Recover the amino acids of this structure.
């Protein structure tokens, strides 16, 4: 291909045109930045410095000057909600929805934010109505998650199941563990109202949804025991070990009571001892201690506790050891032992708690759903001191 001389002349021309275009863009950007209110930059600065209260005041000044700024309304509403001023957040988003010039996408966003306001304010019926209007919008997945949260708060477990299934079918991830827990909640209610057949149907669905669901297995044994079939209940509770060894501590007392009911106390004691050897637990020790004390006497109970304390030195174990020592201590030593026992017991009680692995919420009793963060199955079935020793 021959070289054309005019190409050399064209290069400076193109360079000059590019320089002019760049200068025009810079001047336009500078002009637009000068038209922005000073409060806009002040508000951004406050947000970056995590000063939402001052940011709100700055943005309110802008909204007064230019009521048509949709994005600033969204920012204001979110800031109000974060600060706990849900009434003001609701008004902001309601005013946005009332505008006739609002684009469809912006209207959906305003409705979603309004639903969040209602949820934060505890107005669950209004929140549910608002999120239901978003099922077929671009906020479908977020709306379904919010509805699932609402039904759990209201303990509407069947509706929670339907919402979780819809969310799962939409491709938002598996919800089998939660759905199984919802079936367990229904079964628990049926069991309380002495409807064992209905409870068993729900538990079968729970295990069909999540075969590793420990709670469903435990409740199945409860239903069988309530129906008078203690042998079947014992077989069911023993299957918990196959699902999760640490969770046997939750059924230890049930097992011991069941073996006592059928007259096989020794078998029950030996079983719980085998669990204790495999999964160290103060709850298992408590059950075995009481059973050995009733069956074999104080000396055998003391030996059991002493051996366990040497194997796993914990404050909870020491508390139980002192309790055993006080049972046959001479009167002259009772006062001193009682003093030490009370001191150790006070500290041990602080460690005898369950702790959520998600939010750290501590509780004296075991929860399948954390009261702090509402996560399911977030509590390890061990006391906090036991977890610290293991780690």
């Amino acid at each position: 291909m021959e070289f054309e001389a005019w190409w050399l002349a064209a290069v400076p021309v193109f360079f000059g045109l590019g320089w002019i275009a760049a200068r025009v863009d810079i001047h336009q950007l500078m002009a637009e930045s000068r038209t922005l209110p000073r409060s806009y930059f002040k508000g951004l600065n406050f947000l970056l410095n995590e000063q939402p209260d001052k940011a709100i005041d700055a943005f309110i000044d802008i909204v007064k000057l230019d009521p048509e700024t949709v994005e600033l309304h969204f920012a204001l509403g979110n800031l109000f909600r974060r600060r706990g001023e849900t009434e003001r957040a609701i008004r902001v988003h309601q005013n946005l929805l009332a505008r006739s010039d609002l684009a469809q996408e912006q209207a959906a966003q305003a409705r979603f934010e309004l639903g969040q306001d209602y949820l934060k304010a505890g107005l669950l019926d209004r929140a549910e109505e608002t999120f239901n209007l978003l099922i077929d919008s671009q906020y479908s997945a977020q709306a379904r998650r919010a509805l699932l949260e609402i039904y759990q708060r209201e303990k509407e477990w069947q509706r929670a199941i339907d919402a979780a299934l819809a969310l799962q079918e939409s491709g938002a991830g598996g919800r089998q563990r939660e759905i199984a827990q919802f079936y367990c909640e229904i079964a628990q209610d049926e069991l309380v109202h002495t409807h064992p057949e209905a409870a068993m149907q729900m538990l079968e669905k729970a295990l069909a949804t999540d075969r590793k669901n420990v709670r469903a297995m435990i409740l199945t044994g409860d239903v069988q025991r309530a129906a008078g079939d203690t042998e079947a209940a014992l077989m069911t509770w023993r299957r918990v070990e196959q699902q999760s060894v640490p969770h046997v501590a939750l059924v230890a007392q049930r097992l011991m009571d069941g073996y006592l009911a059928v007259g096989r106390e020794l078998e029950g004691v030996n079983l719980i001892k085998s669990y204790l050897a495999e999964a160290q637990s103060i709850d298992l020790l408590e059950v075995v201690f009481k059973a050995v004390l009733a069956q074999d006497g104080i000396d055998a109970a003391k030996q059991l506790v002493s051996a366990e304390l040497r194997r796993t030195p914990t404050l909870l174990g020491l508390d139980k050891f002192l309790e055993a020592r006080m049972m046959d201590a001479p009167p002259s030593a009772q006062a001193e032992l009682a003093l030490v026992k009370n001191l150790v017991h006070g500290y041990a009680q602080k460690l005898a708690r369950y702790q959520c692995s998600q939010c750290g919420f501590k509780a004296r009793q075991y929860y399948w759903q954390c009261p702090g963060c509402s996560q399911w199955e977030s509590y390890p079935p061990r006391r906090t001191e036991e977890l610290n020793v293991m780690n």
Notes: Residues 19-36, 39-44, 62-67 have pLDDT under 50 and may be disordered.
